[in-house]
Specification:
With about 200 residues, the chain is an alpha+beta fold. The chain has 3 helices and 10 strands.
Length: about 200
C-alpha cells in the first residue's frame, strides 16, 4: 500500500493574517496603556472627594470623643491637650449644629499639631498621606473671594490647615448652624439662627 502526501492548504496561516494579528495586538497594548494613564487622574479625584466628604461628615455630624483608657466622653474640647488622651474631633451638638467651643478647640488643636490631626482624621496612614484645610465661611463666600466667619476679636473663627495649593484638590461644603453665636462678629442670620458654610479641602 503506497501513501501519498497531500498538498492541502487546510491548517495553514497566511502571512496576511499573522501581520494583521500582530498589528491588532500592538494597537491593543498601546491603547490600554493610554487609557490607564488617562483614568489615573480620575481615580485620584474620586479618592480626594471621598476624603473631603469623610472629613465633613466627621466634623458636622459627630460630637467627637475622647478617652485616656479609664475615662471617656464626648467633651473632647476640654480634654484633648491632656497627656495620654486619644480623641476624635467632632464639632456637632447634633447633625449640622456646631458648638462654638468645639470649633475653637479644633482650631487650637490643629494649630498645635497639624500632623497629629491628620492622623486622627484618617488622612495619614501607611498607604496614604493627604493634606487638608478647613474653614467656616459666609454663605456668599466663593473659592476666589473667601469671606471668613470672624469672632468678636476680628479673627477667623475657623481657618486651619495648610495653605491651599494651585493643584488638584477636592472641596466639600456643608451648610451648618453655629450654636451660641454671641462671640461671632459677622453672623449670617437665617430664621433666627446663625448659619455658615463649613468648607473642607483635601489634596
Amino acid at each position: 500500500m503506497i501513501l501519498t502526501l497531500s498538498s492541502s492548504e487546510n491548517g495553514k496561516l497566511s502571512l496576511d493574517m499573522l501581520v494583521g494579528l500582530s498589528i491588532f495586538l500592538m494597537s491593543f497594548i498601546i491603547v490600554s496603556q493610554l487609557l490607564s494613564g488617562m483614568f489615573g487622574g480620575v481615580r485620584g479625584e474620586i479618592s480626594l472627594s471621598h476624603e473631603a466628604y469623610k472629613i465633613s461628615v466627621i466634623l458636622t455630624e459627630m460630637p467627637g470623643k475622647w478617652s485616656n483608657g479609664t475615662k471617656n466622653g464626648t467633651d473632647w474640647e476640654y480634654n484633648w491637650y491632656r497627656s495620654n488622651v486619644f480623641f476624635l474631633p467632632g464639632l456637632a451638638i447634633k447633625p449640622c449644629v456646631l458648638d462654638y467651643r468645639k470649633i475653637e478647640e479644633f482650631r487650637n488643636a490643629t494649630n498645635t499639631d497639624y500632623e497629629k490631626m491628620k492622623e486622627l482624621l484618617g488622612l495619614k496612614t501607611p498607604d496614604s498621606n493627604y493634606d487638608f484645610h478647613v474653614s467656616l465661611e459666609a454663605l456668599n463666600s466663593t473659592p476666589y473671594n473667601r469671606r471668613l466667619v470672624l469672632n468678636n476679636s476680628g479673627l477667623p473663627l475657623l481657618d486651619v490647615g495648610k495653605e491651599m495649593p494651585k493643584t488638584q484638590l477636592a472641596r466639600f461644603e456643608r451648610i451648618v448652624q453655629i450654636y451660641n453665636y454671641t462671640n461671632v462678629s459677622n453672623p449670617t442670620i437665617v430664621a433666627g439662627k446663625a448659619v455658615a458654610k463649613l468648607v473642607v479641602v483635601v489634596w
